[in-house]
Structures are given as structure tokens and as C-alpha cells.
């Protein structure tokens, strides 16, 4: 009975193990940005002047530029009746939040306030 198994040299196994470790490390969760804080920003656009669909599109534009400003947009809420939009983001400061909004779609927030998440 002949064996048709190929033997892999130990050096090749070591290389494969090292590559596997690098691949696992690159897939690990990234640490939270240093010195980033939570911000709520409020846009008062006016009754009847905003739709959930339009805000979803604006949010996608925010996500496309957020990295350029060190901002991470986490979530948003829309009140179509009052025309109010509230966004939650993580950023180094309030100015970065509005700079990202301005670059993304030009709709600057009327208010940007730092908040602390409850437990």
C-alpha cells in the first residue's frame, strides 16, 4: 500500500501559523478612538420639510465622509411632523460633527451638545 500524502516542511507550517495569527489579529475589534466623546446634534428643518427617506440618504453621506473628520455617526432619529432630526455621534469635539455634516450634505446642526451615556 503506497502513501500519497504530501509532507509539509516544518518551516512552511511555522509560516502558515504566523500568517494565521496575523489574519486573526487584523480581524480583531478595533479599540475605541482615543479622546472621542458622544454628541447629540439637532437639526430644526421645519414642519413638513423633512422625510425619513431624505434623512437616511443624508446619513449615508455622513458615513461616507466621517473618517475625514474623526467622527463616527452612530444613529439618528427623525420627527417628520416637526421637521426635527437628531443625530448621535462619537467625535473629538462639536466642531468636527458640524464640519462632517457640512461636507456631507451642507445641513449644519442648530445645536450640538456633548452627552454621557447612562448605564
List keywords for this structure.
Alpha-Beta Plaits; alpha+beta; single chain; 119 residues; disordered N terminus; 4-stranded antiparallel beta sheet; 4 strands
What's the SSE blueprint?
Blueprint: H1 10-27, E1 37-44, H2 52-65, E2 72-79, E3 84-91, H3 94-104, E4 111-115
Antiparallel strand pairs: 1-3, 1-4, 2-3
Helix pairs in contact: 2-3
What does this 3D model show about the protein?
The protein is an alpha+beta fold. It has a domain at 37-115: ORF SCO4226, nickel-binding ferredoxin-like monomer (Alpha-Beta Plaits). It is built from three helices and four strands; from the N terminus they run H-E-H-E-E-H-E. It has helices at residues 10-27, 52-65, 94-104; strands at residues 37-44, 72-79, 84-91, 111-115. Strands 2-3-1-4 form a four-stranded antiparallel beta sheet. Strand 2 and strand 3 (84-91) form a beta hairpin.
Amino acid at each position: 500500500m503506497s502513501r500519497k500524502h504530501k509532507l509539509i516542511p516544518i518551516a512552511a507550517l511555522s509560516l502558515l501559523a504566523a500568517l494565521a495569527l496575523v489574519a486573526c489579529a487584523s480581524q480583531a475589534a478595533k479599540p475605541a478612538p482615543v479622546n472621542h466623546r458622544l454628541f447629540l446634534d439637532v437639526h430644526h428643518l421645519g414642519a413638513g420639510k423633512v422625510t425619513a427617506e431624505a434623512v437616511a440618504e443624508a446619513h449615508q453621506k455622513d458615513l461616507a465622509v466621517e473618517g475625514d473628520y474623526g467622527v463616527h455617526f452612530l444613529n439618528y432619529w427623525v420627527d417628520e411632523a416637526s421637521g426635527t432630526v437628531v443625530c448621535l455621534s462619537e467625535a473629538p469635539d462639536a466642531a468636527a460633527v458640524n464640519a462632517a455634516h457640512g461636507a456631507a450634505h451642507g445641513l449644519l446642526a442648530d445645536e450640538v451638545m456633548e452627552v454621557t451615556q447612562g448605564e
